[in-house]
Design brief:
- α2 runs antiparallel to α4 and α6 runs parallel beside α7.
- The chain is an alpha/beta fold.
- It folds into two domains: about 50 residues, no CATH class; about 200 residues, Vaccinia Virus protein VP39 (Rossmann fold, 3-Layer(aba) Sandwich), CATH 3.40.50.
- The chain is about 35% helix and about 20% strand.
- The radius of gyration is 19 Å and the shape is globular.
- The strands form two sheets. It has a seven-stranded mixed β-sheet with strand order 5-4-3-6-7-9-8, with helices on both faces. Strands 1-2 form a two-stranded antiparallel ribbon.
- The chain starts with a helix and ends with a strand.
- About 40% of the residues are buried.
Length: about 260
């Protein structure tokens, strides 16, 4: 496919082209693979040009699969990543057959972690907090599209500021990239910097979050925190300073990805 050659920057160039062609045709990628003889519509090539400019595939198609859900995403919201599914697996393993009654997702973005867990725990309710109005619009739309509008609510706020009460499970994927770190143009030029960068060492938001997690977590509850793969020791120390016990969970690539604090 000619489009593949134009995506030389992408390690998944063929997959990118297939997803864009399926989107242009209005079909699922699986249907496309079963009939590769379909004519290429004119609407495909503007999508190719957008991808050639390294715009994320999820922004172009308007959706990204995460865990069991297809989420609506777009500019202004962090694109859900498969590495973050480590947090879902860690939470499910920890709570086992005793699902938490209440969930809190700090920095919810398009509702990624909150909605994935609510889909697993059908009797739970949850709150998602984000400072971005754009991200919250996607979160509200996703809750409705996933049939969870009655169990998920969303609040604009700066982390846990003005939040009271307690939650049985808290999840968060905060910014953790150092301001001097290099990023691909796909991420740097398109995704919101406020969801990516956290000071020179990437730890600024963990320093704010650690005491708030202790304040908001209910007795017997657990918090699950995403980390950069080189930050396990530093973030563990911040959590242990709040009297948490901490266990490390690795992503599918074997890299440190989530800390469970309880």
């Amino acid at each position: 496919m000619q489009a593949v050659l134009r995506f030389s920057f992408s390690p998944t160039a063929r997959l990118d082209a297939e997803l864009l062609l399926a989107h242009a045709l209005g079909i699922e990628r699986n249907a496309l693979l079963l009939d590769l003889g379909r004519a290429v519509p004119d609407s495909f090539w503007p999508l190719v040009e957008r991808r050639e400019a390294q715009e994320p595939i999820a922004y172009i198609t308007g959706t990204r699969g995460f865990w069991t859900l297809d989420l609506i995403v777009g500019p202004g919201a962090l694109v859900p990543r498969v590495d973050s599914e480590t947090l879902i697996a860690a939470a499910l393993a920890h709570f086992g057959d005793r699902p938490p009654a209440t969930l809190l997702d700090l920095g919810t973005g398009p509702g990624t972690l909150l909605l994935a867990l609510l889909d697993e725990w059908r009797g739970s309710i949850g709150l998602g907090v984000d400072r971005s109005e754009a991200a919250l619009r996607y979160a509200v739309a996703n809750a409705s599209a996933c049939g969870m509008a009655d169990r998920a609510r969303f609040l604009r706020g700066d982390w846990a500021t003005a939040l009271n009460g307690s939650f049985d499970c808290i999840v968060t994927n905060p910014p953790y990239i150092g301001t001097g770190e290099a990023l691909s143009p796909e991420v740097r030029d398109h995704e919101p910097g406020s969801a990516l960068f956290a000071g020179p060492d990437g730890l600024d938001d963990y320093r704010l979050l650690a005491p708030e997690l202790r304040r908001l977590l209910a007795p017997g509850g657990a918090a699950v925190v995403e980390i950069g793969h080189e930050q396990a020791d530093a973030v563990t120390a911040l959590l242990e300073a709040q009297a948490f016990r901490v266990t490390l969970h690795r992503d599918l690539g074997g890299r440190p990805r989530a800390l469970l604090a309880y």
